[in-house]
Design a protein that fits this description.
Catalyzes the oxidative decarboxylation of 6-phosphogluconate to ribulose 5-phosphate and CO(2), with concomitant reduction of NADP to NADPH. Keywords: Gluconate utilization, NADP, Oxidoreductase, Pentose shunt. By secondary structure, the protein is α/β, with parallel strands linked by helices. Helices cover 55% and strands 8% of the residues. The protein is built from 21 helices and ten strands. The protein binds NADPH dihydro-nicotinamide-adenine-dinucleotide phosphate (NDP) and ribulose-5-phosphate.
Length: 477
């Protein structure tokens, strides 16, 4: 097994099973997870401190001082997992690694890369006979260490040799199913991860609006807020994000002793995947308004100084607090979450059609049930719906899911109406309700839009009583 390493005699070819490049939050924890499952892991990072940390904390770790040294430490065919920031760092690594790899080696990009970059890199790697895998990884630090959800895109033959290891390190869903699947070729895995993050943005926004409503309209204490979220988390709304929200609401600032949310500045950050999800939905012409609204909401939150100035200029309206506020907010959370998943799955289906990927939507629902940030009880119902009807055009058309929407419909509406009357901004809830109402309207306002387009631009319109485009001379010549 140990053949000697001509690239670096210091390390020698110890026949490591996998090389991890990028030993930050995700890479270091995935390396430890891989080692737990019997793999010998070679690791490289630009940062010497991170290499030392890897050596100190990962069982059997083989720290390497350069990409060349890492390649020399691996057994053939070589498997390399890149866990570096998306964009230029991945291209830089590809340039360094690709000329040194051999046909049959497997290069995995586990970062949050854009699926179009992954398409391009897959084609480039293929020219050298190297298998490229775009792997969506979700679960954050804890997931990487104990079991993430893994969404793989790449040729089936590339996945075959690495599938057992990826299956071993993946999370398990509540029924024991591993949360790893090949969802399609080239960028399909990163596409699915991008939509995962879009759903994550929107669900986080819905939850944040729920907390804000109860606090500002209901005057709830942090203890009562935490109790409400804990209660919701025992029912249909159970999810990882509800669980961590409950913990956050119970946490106090170590310095001041006040509830931690009181001292966190209300300006949200973002790294780009939510934005990509929203723009991709627009490019595909598939409505995902609540995902887009969640991105806009983060952008609005970042205008902190302007908002503070405007708040002094415009007084808020007041409105009575409804007696059933908690149950209505719960209805809005569930209705909103269903709408958001419906949007996300519809965009994945549209992407799959557009790029010819044949993504199995039920497999996506299956692997999202464990490990990932958006794991939620609702995914069991979504999996059942997609197993019953694999080509369901929209999750809200499934009778079991639509009955959940209609059951909470009145409460959902009351909350959005009451929040609006009280000047409490609920952009994700409002958008999700409008999506639901738009989707369930057999006849919409678009006849007026068509008439306007034909009026000013002679674009033509379709009649409802016969096929074909027609034009009206709107004004006498
Ligand atoms: N954090 C999270 O919750 C999740 C992150 N991801 C994705 O995983 C990827 C990694 O994220 P994360 O671990 O959080 O990021 P970190 O910044 O914690 O770690 C990235 C590491 O990669 C190193 N690095 C950058 N370029 C190179 C290179 N060319 N060669 C070797 N090492 C390099 C960085 O070194 P240096 O700092 O010196 O540049 C850094 O140590 C990203 O694409 C991210 O979007 C995916 C899911 C969840
Ligand atoms: O992929 C992730 C979770 O699934 C990462 O944590 C990602 O960074 C989250 O996105 P953002 O930083 O834009 O909130």
């Amino acid at each position: 097994m140990v053949q000697g390493n001509s690239a670096n005699p210091g390390v020698g070819n110890i026949g490591a099973d996998i090389g991890v490049v990028g030993l930050g939050v995700m890479g270091r924890n995935l390396a430890a997870n891989l080692a737990d499952h019997g793999a010998t892991v070679a690791g490289y990072d630009l940062d010497a401190g991170r290499r030392a940390d890897f050596a100190a904390h990962v069982a059997g770790a083989v720290p390497c001082a350069s990409p060349e040294e890492l390649l020399g430490a691996l057994k053939a065919p070589r498997t390399i997992l890149m866990m570096v920031p998306a964009g230029a760092p991945v291209d830089a690594l590809l340039s360094a690694l690709l000329p040194r790899l051999s046909p049959g080696d497997v290069l995995i990009d586990g970062g949050n890369s854009h699926f179009r970059d992954t398409n391009r890199r897959s084609a480039l790697a293929q020219q050298s006979g190297v298998h490229f895998v775009g792997l969506g990884v979700s679960g954050g630090e804890e997931g990487a260490r104990r079991g993430p959800a893994l969404m793989a895109g790449g040729p089936a033959e590339a996945l075959a040799p690495v599938a057992p290891l990826l299956t071993a390190i993946a999370a398990r869903a509540p029924d024991g199913d591993p949360c790893f699947a090949r969802v399609g070729p080239e960028g399909a895995g990163h596409f699915v991860k991008m939509i995962h993050n879009g759903i994550e943005y929107a669900d986080m926004q819905l939850i944040s609006e729920a907390y804000y409503l109860l606090r500002n309209l209901g005057g709830f204490s942090y203890e009562r807020l935490a109790d409400s979220f804990a209660e919701w988390n025992r029912g249909e709304l159970a999810s990882y994000l509800m669980e961590i929200t409950t913990d956050i609401l119970r946490t106090r600032d170590a310095e001041s002793g006040s509830p931690i949310l009181e001292i966190i500045r209300d300006a949200a950050g973002q790294k780009g995947t939510g934005h990509w999800a929203a723009t991709t939905a627009l490019e595909l012409g598939m409505p995902a308004p609540t995902i887009a609204e969640a991105v806009h909401a983060r952008c609005l939150s970042a205008l902190k100084d302007e908002r503070v100035r405007a708040s002094a200029a415009f007084p808020s309206h007041t409105a009575a607090t409804p007696d059933d506020l908690v149950s209505s907010v719960g209805d809005a959370l569930l209705g909103g979450r269903i709408a958001v998943y419906a949007q996300g799955f519809a965009v994945i289906a549209a992407g799959s059609r557009q790029f010819g990927w044949d993504v199995d939507l039920a497999a996506v629902a299956r692997i999202w049930r464990g490990g990932c940030i958006i794991r939620a009880r609702l995914l069991d119902r979504i999996l059942a719906a997609l197993s019953r009807t694999p080509d369901l055009p929209n999750l809200m058309l499934d009778p079991e899911i639509s009955s959940l929407m209609t059951r909470g419909d009145a409460g959902f509406r009351r909350v959005v109406a009451q929040a609006t009357l009280a000047s409490v901004p609920v952009p994700a809830m409002s958008s999700a309700l409008a999506y639901w109402d738009g989707y369930r309207s057999g006849r919409l306002w678009a006849n007026m839009i068509q008439a306007q387009r034909d009026y000013f631009g002679a674009h033509g319109y379709e009649r409802i009583d016969r096929p074909g485009m027609v034009h009206t001379e709107w004004k006498p010549a």
